[in-house]
Amino acid sequence: MKIQLWSVGKSHDPYVKEGIEDFSKRINKYFTTEWTIISPPKNAAALSEKDLKKAEAIILSAQLQKDDCLILLDERGRSLTSPELAQFIQQRANESSKKLIFLIGGAFGVDESIAKRADFTWSLSKLVFPHMLVRLILAEQIYRACSILRNEKYHHS
What we know:
This protein is α/β, with parallel strands linked by helices. It contains five helices and five strands; from the N terminus they run βαβαβαβαβα.
């Protein structure tokens, strides 16, 4: 199974880049992992919030495959403990999912079409975080889940 981490926005800021890269390398010991940074439309600043989300949805939909398992990160999603996330990832692997895509939407979230396409909507917290920190937290939590699956010392319950 491949884990893909998608984020709409600009490339990783230097203050989080090292951490994201470190956790991504660690995840690669368990699952092939890659980041895809999806640039917003060129005319993003001129678009309304609704039109921007629609334009981003077109870009995202073009990259999604029918059998991709899409996990949308959204503060209104379901909360998971780290062990529950580990179980979730293991279930997808057991189901022979080819790609598990974790999506961090744009500045205003995602269009309803993407929300409906999501196989699961996950909330890291009821708090709202800057996208760069979400990337770092996401990478760390996926690594933590992988270490739980292997009964490694990283996670202390």
